[in-house]
Amino acid sequence: VPKTNGYHKKIDVTKYTANGPESAEASIIIESPMTIFVNGEELVTLLCLGRGLEYLTAGFLWSENVISSKSEIDSIVPDYGRGTVQVKIAKDNAFIKDLVFKRLVTTACGKGSSFYTIDETAAKLPENTAEVLFYAADIISLVAEFENMSELHEKTRGVHSALLARGREKVIFHDDIGRHNAIDKVLGHALLTDVPVSDKMVVSSGRISSEVLLKVAKKGVPVLVSRAQPTDLAVDLADRLGITLVGFVRNGAMNVYTHPHRIS
Amino acid sequence: VPKTNGYHKKIDVTKYTANGPESAEASIIIESPMTIFVNGEELVTLLCLGRGLEYLTAGFLWSENVISSKSEIDSIVPDYGRGTVQVKIAKDNAFIKDLVFKRLVTTACGKGSSFYTIDETAAKLPENTAEVLFYAADIISLVAEFENMSELHEKTRGVHSALLARGREKVIFHDDIGRHNAIDKVLGHALLTDVPVSDKMVVSSGRISSEVLLKVAKKGVPVLVSRAQPTDLAVDLADRLGITLVGFVRNGAMNVYTHPHRIS
Question: Which 8-state DSSP code applies to residue B31?
Fold first, then answer.
């Protein structure tokens, strides 16, 4: 029987060193399939870390524009044993059927991640004009702390993390197997607990591609930070959408790719 | 005008150090949308590194079971300018329509990454009984070399890589924005150039989740190596499918999670 705390577990492995093989224990992350049902209709199955499922669900539905505010959510009930989340939202059946159908068509045609959809999505978004000012030195120390905030990553070296922060103030932090899920958890947590995001930054342990940039931009977050470098498409979108994009935070320095007026 | 070589480009950024802001250059990766058309029907749009598109396409179609051998491919014609790949395969129109429809339904219901599909996929796969033997010391040095093989990663810190290797012999190597794409490129390259994979290992720069494990297992690769730790679901599947799963390769040591008989 594996020892587990629900998010990671210890298993027996064969460890090879210069001295040859030996028995050892390893901590690995538990990957849980979670199926989201909206008003009884199956919407999607996510592979995730089975913690904070209500936040992941709220964030996912918010990201996918299924809901636009907390008030539209009647209830979110995770069943960790079955790997399901039952969501009730204040929308009629026609909306839900249409949603499932649209998800079907969008994903099927590959438009879910196509250039045209990226362009269309970006064209619909207003430019972010939030006036916030963060100190570069604060971001650099925040990212250094962020690197060590995940106890699970410390144990398993297998999770991504995301953080909602204001200056050096760490507001909401979550881990997940996927970088998208970690960001959805943070944004969903903010939504459900009425924490505004338009005066804060999101820090991600993952690379910033166009999809991640759009996810954060759509919710009005003005500053996105990553230890890694963004892609050119993410930089283009950040430029067009008024998002301050920070990356390559390491060795006491960082790059600001777009809209440096929010950095002092 | 940005300086570019097609895969990465230099852009002007504001760099913040302890001495304050300064103008600097950063190399970032170019993220290209690529739409795959099969016999004229639009199948999917991938966001990827615009290099080796014929390998990515072949690997993607092989992974998704659209084709089962090289002989089914009549032609793969990438158009790097337009971001399209036109594929002709020896299948009739009904098959293609069905394929697009199935992709639609599978993805839509979220079954594309659901537990049930994982279980169903795993149940259909034969156990891998390939008899290969790799030296732990070889894998450890290979991974150390692998870390420095990507010139693009060196420049941009923004790509994933995958390597097909036999012992210390590096056979096929590819970069991409996504870890799935990098593995698809390696497997597609092997398919198109008649390189057998059942006597080799795949090394990935990414984390090993159930989806990555299945992708590699389906093609008969007996050994999968990553610097990171796998998830529990990946370990379960590797155990059931006869795959030797190696991870946590660092500091001159490595863990073997399943089927250590292939490691000496």
Answer: P
Complex prediction ipTM? 0.84
CA B88, B94, B95, B97 torsion-angle sign: positive
**CB-nearest partner of A231 from B28, B108, B137:** B28
Q: What predicted TM-score, i.e. pTM, was given to this entire model?
A: 0.88
Q: Which residues of B touch A24 (CB under 8 A)?
A: 255
Token pair for residue B56? 């990515």
List all residues of chain A from 17 to 46 with a beta carbon under 8 Å from chain B: 17-18, 21, 24, 26-31, 33, 35-36, 42-46
- Summarised one tens digit per residue, pLDDT across range A151-174 is 888 888 788 999 999 999 999 999
Test B229 with A31 for CB contact under 8 angstroms: no
Q: How many CA atoms lie within 13 A of A81 on its CB side?
A: 0
B151 token code pair: 């010139």
> In the numeric block, which tokens belong to residue B246?
């190696």
As a dihedral over the C-alpha atoms of residue B72, residue B77, residue B80, residue B83, rounded to 10 degrees, the angle is -60
Q: Are A180 and A215 in contact (CB under 8 A)?
A: yes
- Tokens, residue A215: 């996810």
Provide the β-strand partners of residue B224.
B202, B245
CB B171 within 8 A of CB B164: yes
What is the least distance, in Å, from the CA of A134 to any CA of chain B?
Answer: 12
CA distance A47 to A83: 10
Specify whether the CB–CB gap between A179 and A161 falls below 8 A: no
CA B161/CA B186 separation, integer angstroms: 9
B122 inside 8 A of chain A by CB: no
**Sequential DSSP letters for chain A:** --EE-SSEEEEEEEEEETTEEEEEEEEEEPPEEEEEEETTEEEEEEEE-SS-HHHHHHHHHHHTTS-SSGGGEEEEEEETTTTEEEEEES--HHHHHHHHHHHHHHHHTTGGG-HHHHHHHHHHSPPP-----B-HHHHHHHHHHHTTT-HHHHHHS--EEEEEEETTEEEEEEEESSHHHHHHHHHHHHHHTT---TT-EEEESS---HHHHHHHHHTT--EEEESSPPBHHHHHHHHHHT-EEEEEEETTEEEEEE-GGGB-
Q: Please, which residues have CB within 8 angstroms of residue B231's CB and are 6 or more apart in sequence? A: A28, A29, A30, A31, A158, A177, B207, B208, B209, B210
Does residue B53 sit in helix, strand or coil?
helix
pLDDT (tens digit per residue) in B97-150? 777 766 554 443 333 434 456 777 888 899 999 999 999 999 999 999 999 999
